[in-house]
User: What shape does this take?
Amino acid sequence: MKLEFERILLNYNKQLVLPFKPTENKIAKFIINEIPIVISNKLSLHKRNYKVQSSVGQGNWTETPWIGIFDRSITSTATKGFYIVYLFRKDMKGFYLSLNQGTTYIQTKYKGNKPRGKMKETASKIREIIYYSDKKFPLTDIELGSSTNNAKNYMAAHICGKYYSFSSLPESQNMVEDLRELIKIYQQLKIVMGWKDTAHFIDYLLNIHEIEDTQFQSDVQLASPAKTPRVPQIIPNKERRLEGYYWRRDSSISREAIHNSSYQCENNPSHTTFTSDITGENFVEAHHLIPLQIQEVFKWSLDVPGNIVALCPNCHRRIHHANKSERDVIINKLFKVKEKELSLYGHNITIEKLIKMYDENRC
Assistant: This one.
C-alpha cells in the first residue's frame, strides 16, 4: 500500500492542469480502479459486505481525492451514513485515515442553521460512545488545506483518525494494521447504531440530552428532597452510559432546589402549569444554571441547590432554544436570583462569563 499511496502523492497534482478525463487519465484510472482492489485484497474485504470506492471528482478534478471503505449494511455512498476514508490534502504533503460521516442529511435538515456545527457535534457525540485508542487515532480535527465545500464538510464530519505525512510514510504492513483497527471501531459504531438508520441515529445523538433530561425530570418528581449543606461540595464522578460519559445528577438535590422555590417558576412566579399527580404541587422542572457539561472547569460540584433553578416547562425550553437575546434576558434574571447562593457553594462567577459559557457550549 505504501507504494500506491506514494504514487498518488507524487503525481496527482500534475493532473490538475490536464482535461478531466478520468477514463483516459492514467493516475485517475489507477486511483479509481486499482487502489480499491489493492485495499480489498490486503484486508480480505468481501465484496458482499464492503464496498471500496475512490473519487477524483465529478465533472472536474477535486482538490482532495479520497478512497472510501463502506460497510454496505450502513451505507454504500459517501453522502450518507458512516464510513472509513483516506482523504488527501490539497498540497499532497500527506493524507488522513478518517472515520467519517456522510453530510447530506445534516446539510438538508439544518440548512441555514450552521450545519457544519451539527456535523462536528455528531462527531463529538460518537467519540463519547465508541472505545478507541486516542494514541493510535489521536486526531479529532483534520486540515485538508482546501476551501471547497466538500473539503470543509469532510473536515467537519471527521470523527477520529490519524495523519500520514509523505515525508515519513509507514510501511505497508503498518498501514494495513491501522486500517484493520479502524474497521473494528467502525463495526463498534455499527453495533451502537443497532436498529436505527442513519437519520434516526443522528437525530438521537443531537437530541440525546433532551431525551435524557425528560427521564431525569420524572425522577426529580419521585425523589425525596435532599438536605445539602450550604458549603462547597465535592465533584461527583462521571457516569458511563451507552451514549458516553456524563456528570452525575442527583435527582434528590434537584427536588430540594425546586422544593426551596416553593414549586414556582423562578423566571416568573405567575407561570402556573398544572398540579403534579406525584408532588401535589405546581409542576416545575429543574435546570442547572451553570451547565453540568462544563463541570471540569470548576473546583466544586455544580450539582448543588444553589446552582439549580426551578422553571416552568416553557421557560426551561426558552433557556435552551430561544435566540440569544431572549435567552440572555432569562439568564441575567436567574443569575441575580442565584448569585449569592452560588457563592456559598464556591462558585464566584460573573454574568458575562456565564453567558459566554452558554454561547460556547450551545447549552
